[in-house]
């Protein structure tokens, strides 16, 4: 068997990914596995993409709703979205951390079959008294724990996050929306 690149050179093995015959130069043995040049380049691209493929969203705005009312509305919003409050701190800054979704549902049914509301995620919302109202910071991120997401699965998370933040803004409207 000859190398798929160097046709005159005997192959020393096959690419463990695509099965092409490779010589020592084209597919060096790395921990008992060989990858051809194309599969090596592809693996590097996937690795770079996976590390940055987390789904998350962030927004901040100011509302003129009093902080006590904003805090009550926030709790109602979390209840409506079946989010479980895992941490709540009060004081100058009200910080609420809430979880939603299930690892089991997302992994068992897959990201393409399950409703995005059932995907595991964590939201952090901060309410802080500001000069002309209440400053709101909202962040939400996936907590699937896989380290990478398929682009379509990531997009489903991001679409849900956008809807979630828009719904929060409807409940605690930015001052420019209040007329």
Describe the structure.
This protein is elongated. The longest helix has 21 residues, at 151-171. It has helices at 37-51, 67-80, 103-109, 151-171, and strands at residues 13-14, 21-22, 56-63, 84-89, 93-100, 121-130, 133-142. 32% of the residues lie in helices and 26% in strands. The strands form 2 sheets. It has a 5-stranded antiparallel sheet with strand order 3-7-6-5-4, with helices on one face. It has 4 helices and 7 strands; from the N terminus they run ββαβαββαββα. Residues 43-53 have low confidence and may be disordered. It has 2 domains: 13-51, no CATH class; 56-171, TATA-Binding Protein, CATH 3.30.310.10.
Entry keywords:
single chain; 179 residues; alpha+beta; TATA-Binding Protein; two-stranded antiparallel ribbon; 4 helices; 26% strand; elongated
